Amino acid sequence: MDDTGDLIERAKALVPMCHCPFSGFRVTAVLEDCSGEMHHGVNIENASLGLSICAERVALDSAVTAGSRDFRRIVVYSPDGLPMPCGACRQVLGEFCSRDFEVIVAGPGGTPGSFRLGDLLPNAFTLKEAAGP
After folding, report:
1. At CA 9, angle to CA 69 and CA 74, rounded to 5?
2. What pLDDT, in 10s, does the model give residues 14-53?
């Protein structure tokens, strides 16, 4: 298992892969599964902005495609500002991750912040709630 600094360095290395010609706000993500495998993502913007996809969801989609379903933590990084996960990313992570799942957010030159998913997405709507009684 890499320490947080190593995960941030992995995330920084992905910055050139970002495709964000509209916002110019580059975001990368490294998602660590419970077996220690790393799954990478970058933000990918589209001319039809609603079809753009955030780095966090790219990393999660890649992990699920590779067969991973249990996750330890994610690092979200941007050299352009503080990249707090959007509501959609929080909800999608909530589908696969526990309330204690660690979300590490790092921006340019600052100390990374660490959050619990349950604090970022209180009262989450999850599969359990969707299934009903």
Report:
1. 25
2. 999 999 999 999 999 999 999 999 999 999 999 999 999 9
**Tokens 């509209």 belong to residue:** 22
Helix (H, G, I), strand (E, B) or coil at 54: coil
Structure tokens at 70: 């249990």
56 is catalytic: yes
**How many Å separate Cα 92 from the centre of its chain?**
10
Q: Are 74 and 29 in contact (CB under 8 A)?
A: yes
Question: Residue 24 and residue 44: Cα distance in Å, rounded?
Answer: 11
Going by C-alpha positions, the residue among 44, 65, 68 that lies closest to residue 56 is 44
37, 45, 56, 102: which is the annotated catalytic residue?
A: 56
pTM: 0.92
Q: Is 51 helix (H, G, I), strand (E, B) or coil?
A: helix
